[in-house]
Design brief:
The protein is of the alpha/beta class. It contains 10 helices and 11 strands. Helix 1 runs parallel beside helix 9 and helix 5 packs across helix 6. The structure holds adenosine-5'-triphosphate.
Length: about 325
């Protein structure tokens, strides 16, 4: 009987549990045993293994976070610890490692394959959706929905007090979350790192909106552009002579990452997990499952390394066209 191991690595994202469940149950369907590795690569080095069964992954589909826990493990950048990891896998007769992770985790896992000829299958997750080679990463939809709901609430206060609100959302260096939050919450201005939006245009736009009778505005800013605090201070300075109701800011932070995954995240995580096992059974290795034109496909793991994925310019235009 074949045996695979599965781990979650890097930052948590809603939908990880759905992916774990899908891997374990699909593997079982094809008569493969699954071993869960706790705390990502840390657990691989320290041999924190536990068998997972179709029953033991019951009741987790709708839960955020990861039952396997996750960690960042600097030691994995050293070959001696990667060797230890492979020895641990081999000592338990494990034939392949399924890594539910982001770019960094894939780079680490890829080395296990290159250096020790150990098969790797990747499943992409990150709320930031910035993994090159796939249109979608697990967790993104939930993060966007969490942030959109928060902006909807902030809008009530902004509207009532006739104020400008600057809302900072996550995304690291990328603007996928900010852009989708901007579109779905009807933000007046959406700032993302990939496409410039000069300060004088922001100021002009706010003044114009105020003059046209709209006395509150929502600005969504990706953390990769600047902090909400800095932007609010700069705007305060440039708008000090205007009779505006004051500027407030809010940093959404970790609430974006937690909570029950949306239907979309549960479904895509389930599809990714199933397909990952099936690709492995077809003899694939060193690939990740990926979304392309809305369909699940496979891509070499190495496609994700060092490449930058950009949001569509058309979406950036959309968010600007739809504001007053
Ligand atoms: P996230 O999207 O949450 O950042 P990620 O997988 O990109 O997910 P990282 O923190 O970049 O998260 O990487 C997770 C772990 O992968 C690291 O803690 C480290 O153990 C391992 N790793 C990352 N980069 C490398 C590398 N170049 N070589 C070996 N291991 C690496």
């Amino acid at each position: 009987m074949k045996r695979i191991a599965v781990l979650t690595s890097g930052g948590d994202a809603p939908g990880l549990n759905a992916a774990i469940r899908a891997v374990v149950r699909t593997a079982s369907y094809y008569n493969i045993e699954t071993i869960g590795v706790k705390r990502g690569f840390k657990g691989l080095i320290e041999k924190e293994f536990e068998p997972l069964t179709p029953r033991s992954v019951g009741g987790i589909l709708g839960r955020g976070g990861t039952i396997l826990l996750t960690a960042r493990e600097p030691r994995f950048k050293e070959k001696e610890f990667r060797q230890k990891a492979v020895e641990n896998l081999k000592s338990e007769n494990i034939d392949a490692l399924f890594v539910i992770g982001g770019n960094g985790s894939f780079q680490g896992a890829y080395l296990l394959s290159k250096e020790f000829d150990f098969p790797i299958i990747g499943i992409p997750k990150t709320i930031d959706n910035d993994t090159f080679g796939t249109e979608y990463t697990i967790g993104f939809d939930t993060a966007v929905n969490n942030a959109m709901e928060a902006v909807d609430k902030i809008r009530d206060t902004g509207m009532s007090h006739e104020r400008i609100f600057v809302v900072e959302v996550m995304g690291r260096k990328s603007g996928f979350i900010a852009l989708d939050v901007g579109i779905s919450s009807g933000a007046d201005i959406t700032l993302i790192p990939e496409y410039p939006f000069p300060l004088h245009v922001i100021v002009q736009k706010l003044k114009k909106s105020y003059e046209s009778g709209k006395k509150f505005s929502i600005i969504v800013v990706a953390e990769g552009v600047t902090s909400a605090k800095t932007l609010a201070e700069v705007l305060e300075h440039y708008l000090k002579d205007e009779d505006l109701g004051g500027i407030r800011y809010s940093v959404l932070g970790y609430i974006q990452r937690g909570g029950s995954p949306t239907a979309k995240d549960r479904i895509i995580a389930s599809r990714f997990g199933k397909k990952a096992v099936e690709y492995y059974l077809e003899g694939e290795r060193d690939i990740m499952v990926a979304m392309e034109n809305g369909k699940i496909t496979k891509k070499p793991l190495s496609i994700t390394f060092g490449k930058i994925k950009k949001p569509e310019l058309e979406d950036f235009e959309l968010v600007n066209i739809l504001t007053l």
